Amino acid sequence: MDTCDSEARRVLILGIGNLLWADEGFGVRMVERLAAGWRFGPQVELLDGGTQGLYLVHHIADATHLLVFDAIDYGLAPGTLKLVRNSDVPAFMGTKKMSLHQTGFQDVLAAAQMLGHYPQRLTLIGVQPACLEDFGGSLSPVVEARAAEALQLGLAELAHWGVHAEARATGEAAPALVDAALAQHAYEAGRPSAQRACRLGDERFLPQTLAEIE
After folding, report:
1. Would you say 2 and 133 are in contact if contact means Cβ atoms under 8 Å apart?
2. CA nearest 69: which of 82, 80, 79?
């Protein structure tokens, strides 16, 4: 168990990524589910970091312990989970950049280190994405199937840090980390069909792809 004084411990559970691009939203969905399913003490903050990049610096600087969920292209089989700790995390965030938010988060960590406020403990729980080009899509089935395991890995890491998580009672209200329209159930239920909305981008620039879909 982490020996850091519990009163001085400040834990940030951060989900980063873009909900609009399928598996890119993995990190945000994991933190959303943690907030919905468990209660934490006042020393713990759960945050939808989205694609904010350097705007997250002050959150990182305030944390002694940082747990990050994200979709990472490790070059492994889709749905593979990988847990990385401490000094290895920045390197894995840059393994193969899928979007600007990963470059931004590397900059956040570097900025926090320059300011002398780098977390004492840093853990990344990443998943190998299967789909990143489904605009407006939610998690792919193979990534969705690993969500429960990813949450358990996160809870185990928190427990190792001495952070207690208490399961919420059925029907208990939970804080909303994302806008109601972007919460996973509402987001998926309101998604138009592929026939009504192009999911790959501007149809003026994708005539061949659209022809294949049709």
Report:
1. no
2. 82
